[in-house]
């Protein structure tokens, strides 16, 4: 008989709805206003400090849900943002500048849901609140670095070609490399050899016939700038992932700007510590033949530079860089055989070959690891922002015991927290060029809460209006459509919660409201088709069967075109546009399922396979 379904089909649909309902449940548990307290320079917080903080909150009359020690940090949960803000002031007074106190939102999902991987939907910056950064990439530093690399490359190339030269040095002010050779023949040979290796080099005569100035073509300069910007974006994304922020936004703005939005982070301190850090490493040999005493008096040898270790010990290092942090592919903190903190480093193939070649003839010599950071100084640049100052320190120097390859380690680090912090930065990647935060904004959770309330209100009123209309116009069949509509909303929330990359934004809520109307459209097409079949004199069972079958083609055509538009919006859009596209695409798929499959099962359950003379439609 027509319009009968096997039991397994009902079980599959009910199972899907129950699964979506379970994964949608975490959204009923709002996040708690929280306070993250961590030690500076990657240190850890002890149990004594946690107890001191909790006692301080109690004495100040602040009610807490919990004050827990988690991964070397204190996480304090509160009932309201007022308690959260008051607690930050108390914690700052208690701990001083040795600890970072950051406002955050902590999930309150029950453990039984967390154990099965259920978590609430990721909310965008406009709903959850958070911080917004606008960063500027220091393109001059990127070009200067390229010139210094050229100096090392030219020296190697000239030695390989057996061309004699006096000096090869970078003129950073003019963006050139100056070659000083020993004869006119060497000048011609050097130009020919270097042009053969790189066609984008531009050669101009220098102050005399034995000097050549080498610069980079405009095409190469543009490539360097583009590479620095794109690589920095990739590295910042990696660093954001290391922080653990859910659904951040990292995108390009203009020729040298990067926009970073971190939902849920209410204080910029922790984010700035990781994002703004321009940590990188350089590995150099210690110049053991140079006169360190003379260098301290200002007479530094031409092929060496003076550095200082963290404990203030001076070291004379060769200018030649054996390896930079660009070739680091992995870094992890651990302990050495003496239970001292260390960082184990893995290099890519090119970096491994470079280090192997550099240490082949250097066994027995000392190699230093130079930690480099760029921090805002006191001088103000032409753009109105502080000029970045390069800060360098030697974090360790050790004797090379054997030829090094793709795996080696750095020791001499002061604390496990610092080792972990250094490993995090190196693992995320060394920035190609320094960045500077030139604008920062904090969007409070109160604004996000208001947006959520308005969005939920819009969805509720839209649902109520549709439910009332369907019941009045289609009677019992309208109730079936309403049940499918509720199931559709549960599916959307459940799927959005299950997909790791899905984020709900304010435009995304608009997409859900639009989906509610589109889901009803499919039911309207089906019900009107059933009415037409009944009007043509078909039996009730034939009308139901043909109504669903013949309406499906129209429903599929209209929804597929809308789905294609949603995919295009997701592909070319950014930020809020992507949020709208995600909810629209998911809503289209769930509405087709509930309108075509769900309602048909219900209609067949109530009226299918029976001798019914009329339908309440």
Automatic annotation (TrEMBL):
Residues 2-103 form the SecD export protein N-terminal TM domain. It is a multi-pass membrane protein. Signal peptide: none annotated. Keywords: Cell membrane, Membrane, Protein transport, Translocation, Transmembrane, Transmembrane helix, Transport. Pfam families: Sec_GG, SecD-TM1, SecD_1st, SecD_SecF_C, SecDF_P1_head. Residues 435-596 form the Protein export membrane protein SecD/SecF C-terminal domain. Gene3D superfamilies: 3.30.1360.200, 3.30.70.260, 3.30.70.3400, Multidrug efflux transporter AcrB transmembrane domain. InterPro entries: Acrflvin-R, SecD, SecD-TM, SecD/SecF_arch_bac, SecD/SecF_CS, SecD_1st, SecD_SecF_C, SecD_SecF_C_bact. Residues 305-433 form the SecDF P1 head subdomain domain. The chain crosses the membrane at residues 454-474, 481-502, 508-530, 551-573, 579-603. The keyword Cell membrane applies. It comes from the Bacteria. Belongs to the SecD/SecF family. SecD subfamily. Forms a complex with SecF. Part of the essential Sec protein translocation apparatus which comprises SecA, SecYEG and auxiliary proteins SecDF-YajC and YidC. This is Protein translocase subunit SecD. The lineage of its organism: Bacteria, Pseudomonadati, Pseudomonadota, Gammaproteobacteria, Chromatiales. The gene is secD_2.
